[in-house]
Specification:
The complex is a heterodimer.
Chain A: H1 2-8, E1 15-24, E2 27-37, E3 42-46, H2 53-60, E4 68-73, E5 76-77, H3 83-89, E6 93-96, H4 108-118, H5 123-136, H6 152-164, E7 170-174, H7 182-199, E8 202-207, H8 210-218, E9 219-222, E10 227-230, H9 237-243, E11 246-252, E12 255-260, H10 262-267, H11 271-277
Parallel strand pairs in A: 3-8, 3-11, 6-7, 7-8
Antiparallel strand pairs in A: 1-2, 1-4, 4-5, 9-10, 11-12
Chain B: H1 47-77, H2 83-93, H3 98-123, H4 129-167, H5 170-176, H6 181-219, H7 224-234, H8 237-263, H9 268-304
The chains are: A alpha/beta, B mainly alpha.
Chain lengths: 278, 306
């Protein structure tokens, strides 16, 4: 399956895990995990708590290094990079942390501008860029506020804006809707959809909520009409392909238990996967 | 704008979420499912294993502290530097510590005079008070008290600030955005501490002598001019060298201990509290131990060189 997907793209996979192992003193978390994420594809990581979803994202960002195995991101082998090289490399990827992880002593504007200031972008160019990104997440009014003055959902959106500012090719989302009410979750998923369909980012999204995955798989954002539209079951395959496909990855017992598209997951008779589909 | 982006569009009344999906997330069977941990037997730990484990942990802690210090020293020399952060820390560590230094310094000097004066009265040598207070303050009490007071105030502040940042993933977020936390968080604090401690010590020395002067005028009936003349004459270059080298080292110790304890927090909010306490205790003890060795070294050098 991954072979055909590789053939479709010339540049190779955006993220590739090869037989990755990770162990702590408590025991092994991964005993040989392999998967690939193609450019513009969204990979949904499913699994119960403690199966290593967050760790996968941290491995992909090089925040952790595997005990064994090789990780390629955007064509670079990051598993053997030194921290100094990794710091440079990480500017190409965006990371949205579970609780947002906004710098609580800085205003929303400073949080979003953080990366640009680090890259010594001239101050007069920073402001319009920050405003543009905040307009994208529809929170332009909050630029002067501190993160503690925002609601949980707004903090997640600002966190997405902060990851978005340097226009990364790969965005890693760690349970972006965890602990949010359904309406706010929907706003976040809409934002992720727009990000995917407007900027064409490759995404790795860890979640416990299967409906987030299906929402990403079954809907797309139309930049012309500025609306989110449900993909036709058969008809607009071209539109779906343009939007990039969504695939699912389910972890169990330190390995990949299931990998495939939304239909395969939906039609699966496997009792373990059925637990997610209840 | 938000309404336009709603999912109920194109006359399609289907729910955004797949039908029949529960709203809540899945709940795991166990809090931390480690592969292959099923049926784990309860392990018995012997006293020897416990001893070996704690020895290993101690060595590991020393190693990672040394690594942090080494990296900090390199990053202090090799740029890029965060000037703004360094200035903010200088304000916090330097200007922020002024009130306690002024207040404590004045009374330390006064107490010194009262204690030594009561002994000198027995020999009728109260005029020596100025000498003793000056030497004790500049060589020893100024640097040590400044170090301990600033540790109590700033090493704890640094540990709790960095610890909170660590547990809320802000340090990881910083790394994820391509910033080296050592450069951004540790170096400014250590640099500020290195620069501010000698200045705070100088203020402590002066205000201590002022306190001593006031106490000797009112309690020992010495003349203020006599006190200052003798105090200044008693000091030589070696005393000043000793008195202003120590705070540089103490500044390094208190800032690195604060950063180390903050960046190695484990266990959430409770861990932050623990790290803060440990930073104060470990910082103070290390400063006192370092003081003993530095004094011996300074006296040896004063003998040989100056």
């Amino acid at each position: 399956m991954s072979g055909t997907a590789t053939a479709l793209s010339d540049s190779g996979p955006a993220i590739q895990f090869e037989d990755v192992r990770l162990g702590f003193s408590e025991g092994d978390v991964f005993r040989g995990v392999s998967f690939q994420v193609q450019p513009r594809e969204t990979m949904i990581l499913l699994g119960e708590t403690g199966t290593g979803k967050t760790l996968t994202l941290k491995l992909a960002a090089g925040l952790l290094s595997p005990s064994a195995g090789v990780i390629h991101v955007l064509g670079k082998e990051i598993s053997s990079m030194r921290e100094a090289e990794l710091l440079d490399f990480r500017r190409k990827i965006g990371f949205v942390f579970q609780e947002g992880a906004l710098f609580d002593s800085m205003t929303v504007g400073d949080n979003v501008a953080y990366r640009l200031r680090e890259e010594r972008v001239p101050e007069e160019e920073i402001e319009p860029q920050v405003r543009e990104v905040l307009r994208f997440i529809e929170l332009e009014d909050t630029i002067e506020l501190l993160p503690s003055e925002l609601s949980g959902g707004m903090r997640r959106r600002v966190s997405i804006a902060r990851a978005l500012i340097s226009q990364p090719q790969v965005v890693l989302y760690d349970s972006p809707t965890a602990g949010l009410d359904p309406v706010t979750s929907q706003t976040i998923i809409t934002l992720i959809l727009r990000l995917r369909d407007v900027y064409g980012v490759t995404a790795l999204l860890a979640t416990q909520r299967l409906q987030d995955g299906f929402a990403l798989a079954n809907f797309h954002y139309d930049p012309q009409t500025k609306r989110v539209i449900r993909n036709a079951r058969n008809g607009n395959a071209a539109a779906a392909a343009k939007a990039g496909q969504t695939r699912f990855l389910v972890y169990r017992d330190g390995g990949v238990y299931f990998e495939g598209g939304p239909e395969e997951l939906e039609n699966s008779k496997d009792p373990y996967l059925q637990r997610f589909l209840v | 704008m938000a309404a336009q982006l709603g999912f109920r569009c194109c006359g399609c009344a289907e729910s955004f979420f797949a039908e029949g999906q529960p709203e809540q997330g899945l709940v795991a069977d166990t809090p931390f499912q480690v592969a292959g941990s099923a049926g784990k037997e309860e392990k018995r730990i012997t006293a020897a294993e416990l001893l070996v484990d704690s020895a290993k942990n101690a060595v590991l802690a020393v190693q990672s502290y040394a690594e942090l210090c080494g990296r900090t020293l390199v990053n202090m020399v090799v740029g890029p530097h965060y000037l703004q952060d360094t200035l903010e820390q200088m304000d916090f560590i330097g200007a922020g510590s002024m009130p306690i230094i002024l207040l404590a310094g004045f009374f330390i000097g006064a107490v010194m005079v009262l204690q030594t004066g009561s002994q000198f009265i027995r020999f009728g040598q109260t005029s020596l008070t100025g000498d003793v207070v000056a030497i004790a303050l500049v060589r020893e009490l100024g640097p040590a008290f400044t170090g301990l007071l600033v540790t109590g105030r700033c090493a704890t502040g640094i540990a709790s600030e960095l610890g909170s940042m660590l547990v809320t993933e802000q340090v990881d977020a910083m790394r994820a955005m391509g910033t080296d936390p050592n450069r951004k968080l540790v170096v400014p604090r250590v640099l500020a501490s290195l620069l501010m401690l000698p200045l705070l010590t100088a203020i402590m020395d002066f205000i201590g002598l002022l306190g001593g002067c006031v106490a000797s005028v009112f309690s020992l009936r010495l003349s203020a001019i006599e006190f200052w003349r003798r105090a200044i004459e008693a000091l030589d270059f070696a005393d000043l060298m000793q008195g202003f080298t120590k705070p540089v080292i103490f500044g390094f110790i208190l800032a690195t201990i604060g950063c180390y304890k903050g960046l190695t927090v484990r266990g959430g909010t409770q861990g932050v509290g623990r790290a803060t306490t440990q930073a104060a205790v470990l910082g103070s003890v290390l400063i006192i131990v370092a003081d003993a060795f530095l004094t011996k070294l300074a006296l040896f050098l004063a003998d040989k060189v100056f």
